[in-house]
Amino acid sequence: MRGLGGKVPGSASAQPPVYRRVETGESPATLRCHRAAVRLLVPGRRLRSTAQSTFAFTRAAAEEVGDAGGGVVVNLLQIPQRVVIPTAGRRGDSYSRKEASFARNSSDAIRNNRRKMELLSIILFIASMLPFSASNRQGDALYDMKLKLNASGDQLSDWNQNQVSPCTWNSVICDNNNNVVQVTLASRGFTGVLSPRIGELEYLNVLSLAGNNITGVIPEQFGNLSRLTSLDLEDNLLIGPIPASLGRLSKLQLLILSQNNLNGSIPDTLANISSLTDIRLA
């Protein structure tokens, strides 16, 4: 197709063709048309485009040689800038604007969907990490409890701080969400003290440390165990008063603090626990 580069074959040599830029009121650099409405005249044959899309002739201009049913029949000749040939009137411009608008809307939709997917991925990642994060906090609290109790090398040996979840540890029971709900460590010979961090086990239902040699006081933080139903610290060497904070344990049913060296008066707050069915303090 020599029409894209220089002289058009078959054109008259006596009279050079007169070239005129096809315009529709816009800058020649932005003229557009619908490809299905354009016919191109090439010496020796006629071509009619059929693709349903806007197209452009790069570095080309048009010599208008006649009208063909609403389209423009043209020869293509090389010029120093980009021109897109329009159809007669403004119909091609209407096509191009609709297509440009559709392209912009599609691009915006893709970007918005990408942002939503990225945000969803972040949320899912954070949500997937929450059980492990909770398990780590509970594991840290239990490990601190082990240290404070002066557990020997063979006692609670599987309570490993580097494990993701404490739910596999001996004497620890968890629910289906990996929350620690029961710790039973009766008659193990512990000689240390009670860790205040036990109060961080917010899902704990049962805590039994009876029959050891635990000294020191009952931490005020035990009052944070809002789901606790059973607390058994019987037969230890505990001293000091009964914490008034235990009165906040609204679900407590069993409270056994007998056979210790506790002193002071019984807190009035214990009377607020309507669920108590068994209480032993002497």
Automatic annotation (TrEMBL):
Q: What InterPro entries does the record point to?
A: Leu-rich_rpt, LRR_dom_sf, LRR_N_plant-typ
- Which Pfam families does the annotation name? LRR_1, LRR_8, LRRNT_2
Keywords attached to this Swiss-Prot or TrEMBL record, sorted alphabetically, are:
Leucine-rich repeat, Membrane, Repeat, Signal
What are the annotated GO cellular component locations? membrane
Q: Which residue numbers delimit the Leucine-rich repeat-containing N-terminal plant-type domain?
A: 136-175
- Keyword Signal (UniProt): yes
- Localized where? Membrane
Q: What is its main location?
A: membrane
Coiled-coil-forming residues are: none
Any idea what this protein is called? Leucine-rich repeat-containing N-terminal plant-type domain-containing protein
Q: Which organism is it from?
A: Panicum virgatum
